[in-house]
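tool_call predict_complex ligand=heme C
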Amino acid sequence: MRGGRLALWGWLVSACGTAPVPAEHTPSSPPGTWSEADRAVLASLRLDTQLPPSPTNPLDGDPGAVALGRALFYDAGLSPSGTVSCATCHQPERHFGDGLPLSEGVGRTARHAPTIEGVQAAPFLFWDGRADSLWAQADGPITHPDEMGSTPEHVVAHVQATYPQACEALGITGEGAYVRILQAIAAFERTVLPAEAPFDRYVDAVLAGDPQGGGHLSAEAVEGLAVFLGRGQCVACHHGPMLTDHAFHNLGLPQPGAMDLGRTVGAAKVLKSPLRCGGAHASGAACDELRFLDPTFQDFQAAFKTPTLRNVAETAPYMHDGSMRDLQAVLTFYSDLPGEPVAGHRELTLVPLQLTLQERAGLVAFLESLTAPVRPEALPPAP
Ligand code: HEC
Ligand code: HEC
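tool_result ok
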C-alpha cells in the first residue's frame, strides 16, 4: 500500500535495520556535527544505483535492447509527424526535463514533464501513478494525442523498417512487437540513472569520520541539510537514495485550472490498464503492488507522486502542474502552506515552516549539492 502516512509508517518500519529515524528527529547542533541517528539517515540518502528487478520486462538488462531503446528514445520517427521524440520533453541537457511549465508535443499537455533520472525504482510511474512499469508507461506518451500523437501500428512499422537487425535479434515481430518495443525503451531508461553528486561525496566523508565532510558541502548547504532532516521534515517524504518515497501525497497546491484528482484517478486507471502487471502482456509476476490498491482510499484525493530531488536544481519549473517557477517559490510554499486543498485534505505531516531567509538559502544550497553530470550512456547515440 502506498498512501500518505501509511507509506511513511512502512518506511520507518522497513528502514529500522539501517536508518532508525524517529519522527521527531532533530539533528544535533552545531550543523555538521551529526549524531549516530543522523549519520544513519545520511547513509540512507546516499546514491545507490542498484535497482529492484524488473520482472515484467524480459528485455531488461539486454545490451541489444538497451542500444535499441536508446536510439528510439531520441527518434522523432516514432511520431507520425516526424517531429516529436521522447527527448523533445525529456532533454538530456536539462536533466531530462523540458524547462516548460506544461509540456508541448504535438499539442500542449496538462502536466509538467518530470525527469526520468531516478524514477527507475518507482513502482508507479506518472504524477498520478497510472502505469505500473516503465515499459507500460512508454505507451502513454506514444499514443497521447498531445504528446507524440502516434499509434502502435505506426511505431511497429517505423521500428521494423528502420532497425531490422535489432528487431530480428530481439524478436520484435508479430503480435507482441509493440510491447517488445516498449520494453526496449524501458531497458534503456533503466540505465538513465543519476550520477554521484557532491552530497554523496560529503556523506562518504562524514561516514568515514571527517566532520568537515571532505569540504564537499558549503557551510550554508550543511545548514540546509540540517533543516531538511530536522525541523523541515522534508525527509519524511523525500527519503532513500533518490530522495523520494515513490508515494503519493496531497500537498494542497492551489489548482486554478480544472480539478485534478491525481492518484484517485491514476489508481483506477492502472487497475484497468491492459499493460498492467498480471495483464495479458505481463502475466506470471507477483503484482504485489496492485493487489491491495484501492482507488477509493481517502488520502489518494489530489495526491501526486513525490518527485526525486536528485538534479532538482536543474529542472525548474516545479510540481506536477509546473506552477512554481524556481526553488524559492517551492520553499515559499512549504513555508506558508497557503489556502485550502481543493479536494481531500492536506497531508497531516505538513505544517507552515515559516522558514527564515537563512534557512531558505541553506535549503537551496543543499538541493544544489544534489546536482551531478548526466551519465554519458544516457546521451543520444553517435549517428
Ligand atoms: C510532449 C512531451 C512528452 C513526450 C514527447 C514524452 N513525455 Fe514523458 N512525460 C511528459 C509529461 C508531461 C509527463 C508527466 C505526465 C503525467 O504524469 O500525467 C511525463 C512522464 C514520463 C515518465 C514518468 C516519470 C515519473 O516520475 O513517473 C517517464 C518515465 C517518461 N515520461 C518517459 C517518456 C518516454 C519513454 C517517452 C517517449 C516514448 C516520453 N516520455 C515522451 C512529457 C512527455
Ligand atoms: C508530505 C510529503 C512531503 C514533504 C514533507 C515534503 N515534500 Fe516536497 N514534494 C512532495 C510531493 C508529493 C511533491 C509533488 C507535489 C505535486 O506536484 O503536486 C513535492 C515536490 C517538491 C519539490 C518540486 C520537485 C519537482 O521536481 O517538481 C521540491 C523542490 C520539494 N518538494 C522539496 C521539499 C522540501 C525542501 C521539503 C521540506 C521543506 C519538502 N519537499 C517536504 C512531498 C513532500
